[in-house]
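Q: Structure tokens for this one, please.
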Amino acid sequence: MYLIDTNVISELRKKDKANAGVRAFFYKAQQQEYLLFVSAITIGELRRGVDMIRHRGDKQQAEILEDWLNLTKEKLCN
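A: Here is the predicted structure, written as tokens:
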């Protein structure tokens, strides 16, 4: 079982451009059915990042990230 940190989730969001080690870990985790967890603090940090981007005035990027965060939270909670 693994507790996934904020920076790892952010890296994974890059998909094909993500760090090869991060991609390999998640591929192996999926293949071997590892239990993966995310803390409420990590969700809060991601939420804060979206809010900071919105506050800087990049509403379009904030909306994209907020949609991604909501989808991610939905997947994690099911």
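A few notes: Strands lie at 2-3, 36-37. Residues 40 and 46 are 10 Å apart (CA to CA).
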